[in-house]
Amino acid sequence: MFESEFAKTEFIANDNTVFHVWKKEAHFDDYKQPVTALLEMLREHIKALLPLSSLSNRCVYTTAGLSWY
Questions:
Q1: Confidence of residue 53 (pLDDT cuts 50, 70, 90)
Q2: Measured between alpha carbons, how far is 59 from 63 in angstroms, rounded to an integer?
Q3: Of the four listed, 52, 56, 59, 68, which is most buried by Cβ atoms within 10 Å?
Q4: How much is the pTM?
Q5: DSSP codes joined into one string, the chain
Q6: How do 17-22 and 59-62 pair as beta strands?
């Protein structure tokens, strides 16, 4: 499991799912550590599912970082 002030990522074994939730708006380097943790968890659990809704949470990726709407 990974948790920071910006996001929480965890593997849910019962559902074979990696779940990622953004807690608040992140910009530039603030989103890199949570996304890196997410990718590492997906590599570790190669056949795990990643619900696309767990990535959105009212945010979009832009060239300036993560923006919320």
A1: low
A2: 13
A3: 59
A4: 0.70
A5: -EE-SSEEEEEEGGGTEEEEEE-S--BGGGGHHHHHHHHHHHHHTTT-B--THHHHTTEEEETTEEEE-
A6: unpaired
The overall average pLDDT reported for the chain is 79
28 or 22, higher pLDDT: 22
Beta-carbon count within 10 A of 68 CB: 11
Identity of the amino acid at 4: S
Higher pLDDT, 53 or 13: 13
Spatial neighbors of 28 by CB under 8 A, at least 6 apart, are: 64, 65
Q: Are 48 and 18 in contact (CB under 8 A)?
A: yes
